[in-house]
Amino acid sequence: MSVKSRLAGTWFERNRGLLIRLFAVFVGLTIWDLYARGQPDYLFPGLELIFESLVTQFREDDLVGAFMNSMGTMFLGYILAVLVGVPLGLAMGINRHLDVMLNPYINAMYVAPISAMVPIFILIGGPTFEVRVFIVFLFCVFEILIDTYEGVKTTPEGLLEVSESFGASKYYTVRHVIFPHDLPYITAGLRLGMGRAVNGMILAEILIEFVNLGGIIRSWADVFRVSGVLSIVLLLMLVSIILTRLIQLLEKQIIDWEAEK
Question: Rounded to an integer, what distance in angstroms lies between the CA atom of residue 69 and that of residue 187?
Fold first, then answer.
């Protein structure tokens, strides 16, 4: 076997997962387009019409500006959720008294229908940027918090007993035993929280203020142009996939760094 063939085989093995995903996306889009050819455009538009709508939104609806503003709202709410969810999840997992005190409230808020409470938030804070950020925060903070908490609670008892038997301090146990075990749980919460943040951002922009990407969706939906709605939906799906992948890469880097220490 030639060197070129061996290199090609190695590259294929390394990127097999990516190639399978791309093939699955290609098959899905092909099926979509074939099915759409037999359907009315206003009900099930094809990919060409969706792309044309995206180009129209770029030219006439200031899609770039709307996208940047929406991402600003989403990232601010998401970062606040990370800053609250990760430390509080760690604290609840470590401190039994704090766990007993806050657990009922956390579980109740996690299952609460946040979208149903949007009118209350509007009455209290008005249709403002701050309220939209708060909605994003609520959508993703509990996902991050609970995953972080579960990672702490599932730390193997054997590791904790060994650390205790060697007289390790509480800080050392948390830093070198509990936190490394919790990292995959934290990053899983970050990935799930990112998807929730996108949902919260769009919901807030549609229900609270008709602005940015939510405003574009609303304006196209009001005139029954489904292609324009789907173009934004597919754009957000692509963004979510990219951001989730970036978090996965960050997770790998952090875990490798912890392993080398």
Answer: 26
Look at residue 145 in the predicted model and tell me its pLDDT. 94
Q: How many helices (H) and strands (E) does the chain have?
A: 12, 0
Mean pLDDT of 11-40: 76
Of the chain, the end-to-end C-alpha distance in Å amounts to 40
Instruction: Please determine, for residue 7, whether its predicted confidence score (pLDDT) is greater than 60.
Output: no
Separation between Cα atoms, residue 148 and residue 152, nearest integer Å = 7
String of b and e for 191-224 (b: at least 16 CB within 10 Å)? bbbbbbbbbbbbbbbbbbbebbbbbbbbebeeee
Among residues 182, 184, 194, the alpha carbon closest in space to that of 241 is found at: 194
Distance CA 66, CA 69 (A): 5
pLDDT at 11: 57
Non-local (6+) Cβ contacts of 66 within 8 A are 211, 212, 213, 215, 216
Measure the CA–CA gap between 123 and 131, rounded to whole angstroms. Answer: 10
Q: Are 81 and 146 in contact (CB under 8 A)?
A: no
pTM of the predicted model, to two decimals? 0.84
